[in-house]
Write a structure and sequence with these properties.
156 residues; mainly beta; Methylamine Dehydrogenase, Chain H; 4-stranded antiparallel sheet; 16 strands; 0% helix; globular
C-alpha cells in the first residue's frame, strides 16, 4: 500500500489491489475508487483539489480529488520518487536520470534536469529551490524556471 494523503477529510491511498481509493475520514465509507493497470509506487500528494502520484507503469498521474476522474498523465519513466507540488508545478524524479517539473494544471513538461544516475529520492522544495538526491551520490539544488541555479553537494 502506498502511504496515504489526507485532504478535506478524505483519505487517498493506493493499494496492492491496483486501486486508487478515496475514503471519508470521518465515516470510513468509500467515496470513489479508480482501477489502475499497475500499482501505485509513490506517496500521494494533494494540492488544490488534485491527487498526484507515480505508478509502476512509468506515469505520473493527476486525479480530481472529488470526482475520482483522471485529469492527465505524464510519461516519466519508471521510478520510486514521490511527487512534490509547489506554485502549480509538480516535481518528480525518474529512473531515466531526470528531475521533472510538470505544470500541475495541464500535465505538460516545463523543464527537466539531468543527473548522472537514477533520481530515486523524492524532491522537496524550499524558497523556490528543489532539492533531490540521485544514485550518483549527489544532492542537487535546482532553482528557477528556466533553471538558473544548480548546486551539487557530493555525499561521498
Amino acid at each position: 500500500m502506498a502511504s496515504p494523503a489526507v485532504s478535506n477529510r478524505v483519505i487517498f491511498f493506493g493499494c496492492s489491489d491496483m486501486n486508487l481509493y478515496a475514503i471519508d475520514a470521518v465515516t470510513g465509507t468509500e467515496k470513489w475508487r479508480f482501477v489502475m493497470t499497475e500499482y501505485i509506487n509513490s506517496m500521494l500528494a494533494v494540492s488544490k483539489g488534485v491527487v498526484y502520484f507515480g505508478s509502476n507503469d512509468g506515469y505520473l498521474y493527476a486525479f480530481d480529488s472529488v470526482m475520482g476522474t483522471k485529469k492527465w498523465q505524464f510519461k516519466k519513466g519508471w521510478g520510486s520518487s514521490s511527487p512534490a507540488v509547489s506554485n502549480n508545478v509538480v516535481y518528480i524524479g525518474s529512473y531515466d536520470n531526470n528531475l521533472y517539473a510538470i505544470d500541475a494544471v495541464s500535465g505538460m513538461e516545463k523543464w527537466r534536469f539531468k543527473t548522472e544516475s537514477f533520481v530515486h529520492s523524492s524532491p522537496t522544495i524550499s524558497n523556490g529551490v528543489v532539492y533531490v538526491g540521485s544514485y550518483d551520490s549527489n544532492l542537487y539544488a535546482v532553482g528557477g524556471n528556466p533553471i538558473t541555479q544548480v548546486t551539487t553537494l557530493s555525499t561521498v
